[in-house]
Amino acid sequence: MSEILNFGRENLAFKQLRKRSAFLFLLIALFGSITFFQIIKLTILDSNLYTTKSDENRIIRIPIYPSRGLIKLSNGEIVVENIVTQALTIVPNKTSDLELTLEELKQNLGLKDEELLTFKRKLSKTKYKYDSIVIVENLTKEQIARFSVEKEKWPSVSIKAQLMRFNLLGPIFSHVTGYVGLVSPEEIDESEDFSYPFTSQIGKTGVEKFYEGTLRGGEGFRTIEIDAYGKEVRELARFIPEQGKDIYLSLDKELQVLARNELAGRKGAVVALDPNTGLIKALVSSPDFSPNILNKTETGKVENILIDSQSPLFNRAISGNYPPASTLKPFIGLLGVKEKKINWTTTIEDQGFFQIDGKGRKYRGWKEDGHGTVNLSKSIIESSDVFFYHLATQLTVDSISNFLKQFGFGRKTGVDLSSETEGLLPDRKWKLGAIGESWFVGDTINISIGQGYISCSPLQLAVAVSSIATKGKVYRPRVVAKIEDQFTEKQVIYHLNQIEKSHWEKLENSMVSVISHWKGTAHNLTEFGQETIAGKTGTAQIKSLTDAELTVKEEYEDIRLEERNRDHALFVGYGPLPDPELTVVVIVENGESGSTVAAPIAQRLIDFYADRED
Amino acid sequence: MSEKAPLGYQLNTTLGKSKLTLIKLFIDPILVLSILALLVFGLFVLYSASGQSTSMLQKQALYVVFGLVMMFFISRLDQTVYKSFLMHLFWIGLILLLWVLIFPAEGYKADRWIDLGFINFQPSEVLRLLLPLAAASYLTRGHRKLALKDWLITLSAIFLCSFLIYKQPDLGTALIVLASGCIPVLLAGFPLIILLVFLILIGATSPFIWANLSPYMQQRVITLFNPESDLLGAGWNISQSKTAIGSGGISGKGYLNGTQSQLDFVPEGHSDFIFSVIGEEFGFLGIFLLFLIYSLLLFRVFSIAFNSSTEFSRLAATSIGFIFLLYILINVSMTVGTLPVVGVPLPLISQGGTAIVIHLVAFGFVLSMKKRQTW
Fold first, then answer.
1. DSSP secondary structure string, B250-287?
2. Cα B338 to chain centroid, rounded
């Protein structure tokens, strides 16, 4: 009986089991079908997407950066080269305690507080905290050794070799070569054809900046396969970058050194160029600086350079705006004869001052008693202001402005250096816009002696003066003579062919007489000068002397006691004649006398240059 | 009529004889062959997934051989020999679970291992099989209708084990063990009303349970619902696994050519995520083939189960079949991202000695439960 009962119960249990199995199977199958559809979605429907994803996982492109081109002199002597330095770098997000790590590094490697402070400032600005950031550059051998002994303590810190810029000649060509520095986020954004890594260096001034693309070369890359830990497994492809090109400067080292020594650290600038080609032979802005401190290849405080009141980083030769003063007179005179307002024999009576229509305000010349009867030639030789005041009243500001523009005033010369100034060539429109006043005759009178609103850079003056040396043909100034084996081309920027040859010759004769005539403002040069040069002195007034109350001589002496109020000394010239090889412009800030301070420098440069050529 | 039997007949008898020997030896050739196919396939995949490590392969092969010997040995047994023994084996399992909690083996992150020096294993893995078999044994012991008391005792044992494993802490395995234990209970006819009430109760208390979960477990649950929330942590695993399978496409990248697997982008590619390696290197077709073999195996297991002679063997073999199916589903689902990542290996394929041996032992039991022909 119980067996039958049990048999019945067992049958029931078996039925139950089958029912429950079917139920459970259905449940599992329901969920299983979701998973199965997911598999179909992954492997069939979205397969392309995941293939891309898996490739992105393992294939990365690593840029290859070529080493930067060198800067050399024409004879092949290296001015700027790349040196290997060891830098201490850290990946900020890989450290557990940044402060502690830095403190330990400071103790062990003897880092300086200010170095760490600079790093912290840099760190606070960067957003790439997963990349390595330089803590200090130029580790010493001792520091490298000390680090190597205990490097396991700081897994986030490592030493990286990097190529840095080193200027072999130090400050001598500092304003020509410029310096490099860490690329800024703006520079990264602006660069279209080259993706700078945020740790890379970029030319900041001078040739380094202007020829950045040439020196830097192109960007290459390696396509590599990596594993999950970022380790390279194999290389898939390689695109060799275009090498950075070497650049050959046109500058003459000996001439540059001479010019630099002549300035002797005084504020000022010397530009010497070959008027027949536009090649710059010397370009000094004084004081200058050590580019290696900014390149971070020499110890020294960048801050000291930046806060120096003498602004050594300021390139006076191409960015400085100076009144051309009397050095403008030859051009104004040339305009007078060209416009036939005067000729070479026209004379006036210079009594030391000039009044419009013989009445009203007195415009004084620099010589109280005047120069007597002067013609154009004599007024250039002796630098008569009054003659040009007269002439100015016969000219319009528009004709002056248009004429001077042809010599390069008021516009960039196109020199292959960055941050060149345009100078200022005023006209009616400019004054109305900038000052808000209409143009007065007095303004024209001021311009005629290179004072007032007009200003220009020493380089602009050099370019303008070169046109007299070449009788009207002016070439674009340039500091680079050759890129790799490709010579840079000489390029005519303006050709003043509407001026008669006799005018040029008479103008040159007048400028030669500035030195040779016993009354010439630069006659002192004959004491030592060897070569015949043409030139013109200038004394740029800082404090206006046209104001009636400052005409008394005592007051004039008074304000000159303070150095920064003293006049700038200017000299423009070229030589040796009759075949000029060098145009020289010298400006010594607060040097007071164009003839005794500026002119001798120019004479010595031309003498040296011509003498050595022979 | 020739006196000599025709050649064909002779051949047939030999074939028939050898077939019979094969059946004698293997009991169920289709089941055994599909198991062997999976094991061999598994070793091949493991070689690729382990970064072509021969040492890992050798170790795994050793376990496979050991497991096969165990399977062969157990398949020879008569179910009456071990039925009541299994029920008492439960206590040993319980002691082992307590053991790992009280004397944690050194050098492991969670207290899951027992280190016997020459061999180490996870008691929780053993419980996955032991618990359902013990439950099946207990529930069919009396040849009588089951009372509420029987259900309660069985469930208490299951929950106790799950709780101890949860304490290790290993939420994934705890849930798996819980599910494994519940399968025979459900199949044996557990009243659905009580189940319903129970489910509602769990639903109601889930916020409280959530609050008591450790952050590590909470993270796992969060990652399930939003894998992208943690792309560098747990979500990374799922994302990389999906990428591997998806990039395999229909026919796969080829054996040893899976970039995700070979370059270590697939985490735990040799163990929990070995399915991703299969997907990447053999594609949809490979996955389909794998499923086919699994289906064949399960078909045989269920077929043996339903044709088995006793109530116990029917329940036990069906449970083993479902547990096996559940493991496949959970493992595959977690690798393709339809389930959270719980530590369930792909049966018979994934690296892991304990799991392989346990599964083979389970199939040994299934084979032993096959209704014997007269031979």
1. TT-S-TT--HHHHTT-STTTTTTTHHHHHHHHHHHHHH
2. 19
- The CB-based long-range contact list for B15-22 (8 Å cut-off, 24+ gap) reads B20/B375
Q: Do A226 and B263 touch (CB under 8 A)?
A: yes
DSSP A535-554: EEEEEE-SS---SGGG-SHH
pLDDT band of residue A117 (cuts 50, 70, 90) is confident
Label residue A516 by pLDDT band (50, 70, 90): very high
Q: Model pTM?
A: 0.69
Q: Would you call A21 an interface residue with chain B, using a CB distance cutoff of 8 Å?
A: yes
Strand partners, A222: A62, A238
Domain that holds residue B127: 28-370
- Closest approach of A89 to chain B, Cα-based (Å): 25
**Chain B: closest CA distance from residue A59 (Å):** 10
Domain assignment present for B21: no
Q: How far from B311 is each of A16, A81, B317, B318, CA to CA, in Å?
A: 11, 91, 10, 11
* Averaged pLDDT of chain B: 84
Q: Which of A21, A50, A229 sits opposite B242 (nearest CB)?
A: A50
Inter-chain residue contact A50 with B188, CB threshold 8 Å? no
Could you tell me the two tokens for B315? 């329940």
Residue B292 lies in a domain: yes
The active-site residue, picked from A286, A326, A418, A593, is A326
The beta-carbon neighbor of A14 closest among B186, B246, B314 is B314
Output the pLDDT for position A318.
Answer: 94
A31 touches chain B (CB under 8 A): yes
Please indicate, yes or no, if residue B11 is contained in any of the structural domains: no
Closest Cα to residue A366, out of A259, A451, A299?
A451
| Cα–Cα nearest to A477, from A536, A412, A406, A425 | A412
The shortest CB-CB distance from B189 to any of A13, A54, A227 is to: A13
Q: How many C-beta neighbours within 10 Å does residue A373 have?
A: 10
Task: Tell me the per-residue pLDDT of B19-50, one tens digit each, with 9 for 90 and over.
Answer: 667 667 778 889 999 999 999 999 999 999 98
Predicted-complex ipTM score: 0.88
Residues whose CB falls within 8 Å of the CB of residue A89, separated by 6 or more in sequence, listed in order: A132, A133, A134, A135, A157, A158, A159, A160
Query: Phi and psi for A167 in degrees, rounded to 5?
Result: -95, 110
Task: With cut-offs at 50, 70 and 90, classify the pLDDT of residue B5.
Answer: very low
- What's the pLDDT at B113? 66
Let me know if residue B365 belongs to a domain: yes
pLDDT of A304 over the 60 cut: yes
A553-598 pLDDT per residue, tens: 445 556 556 677 788 899 999 989 889 999 999 999 988 888 888 9
Cis amide linkage into residue A287, ω under 30° from 0: yes
Known catalytic residue: A326?
yes
pLDDT exceeds 90 at position B97? no
Interface contact A51-B246, CB threshold 8 A:
yes
Interface check A38 vs B, CB under 8 A: yes
Q: What is the pLDDT averaged over residues A439-467? A: 91
Nearest chain B residue to A47 by CA distance is: B246
Structure tokens at A540: 């740029």
The number of distinct structural domains making up chain B is: 1
Nearest to B264 among A31, A32, A228 (CB): A228
| Residue of A50, A58, A60 best to disrupt the B interface, most CBs of B under 10 A | A50
B233 has pLDDT over 70: no
Which pLDDT band, with edges at 50, 70 and 90, does A357 fall under? confident
Phi and psi dihedrals of A290, rounded to 5? -90, 110
Q: Provide the β-strand partners of residue A355.
A: A362
